[in-house]
Amino acid sequence: MDIYFKKCTINDIHKLQDISYKTFDETFKNQNSPENMKDYLEKAFTLKQLEKELSNLSSQFYFIYLNKRLAGYLKVNIKDAQSENMGEDSLEIERIYIKSNFQKLGLGQYLINKAFEIAKKESKGKVWLGVWEKNEKAIGFYQKNGFVQTGEHSFYMGDEEQIDYIMMKTL
């Protein structure tokens, strides 16, 4: 397996938008109404929104390729880019998204390990994330990687309030 990891730049915005739509839709469309999915996708992954996120110096996006094919991406945040105020000692993994046909190949593990490396390079002592309470597969993956639930927060999918577990790992 030939794995390649690349930091995203503003020049990658269309590719980032495409994979963001695709992976989010594949992951969550079966558990949400088409209206709520459409509403969320049209807000979260507009070119304007992605440009804002890409130009924030406290956020970083990385593509992962398998055998020269774009398979997924990682988004991490520090400082004020974190979606919750978890302090200066924390790095947030906001997104680990892998296309469905590339899942179960170890790419999620590769990305989470990269997030840990980034956190250490940034001198962060904790890594945290939010994961939907109904995403049991992801929760199990994070627990296997040493994350424990420390709280929860609301996440809005269209007009529906959903609960995300806050999970944290001390490095």
Q: Counting H and I runs of at least 4 residues, what is the number of helices? A: 5
The coarse overall form would be globular
Number of strands: 7
State the low-pLDDT regions, or none: none
> What is the strand content?
25-35%
Summarize the structure.
The protein is 35% helix and 35% strand.
Would you mind describing this structure in some detail?
Strands 1-2-3-4-5-7-6 form a seven-stranded mixed beta sheet, sandwiched between helices. It has helices at residues 13-28, 34-44, 47-54, 107-121, 136-144; strands at residues 3-7, 59-66, 69-77, 90-98, 126-132, 148-157, 160-170. Strand 6 (148-157) and strand 7 (160-170) form a beta hairpin. The protein is α+β, with helices and mostly antiparallel strands and 171 residues long. The model has no long low-confidence stretch (mean pLDDT 96). Helix content is 35%, strand content 35%.
Give the topology, please:
Blueprint: E1 3-7, H1 13-28, H2 34-44, H3 47-54, E2 59-66, E3 69-77, E4 90-98, H4 107-121, E5 126-132, H5 136-144, E6 148-157, E7 160-170
Parallel strand pairs: 4-5
Antiparallel strand pairs: 1-2, 2-3, 3-4, 5-7, 6-7
Helix pairs in contact: 1-3
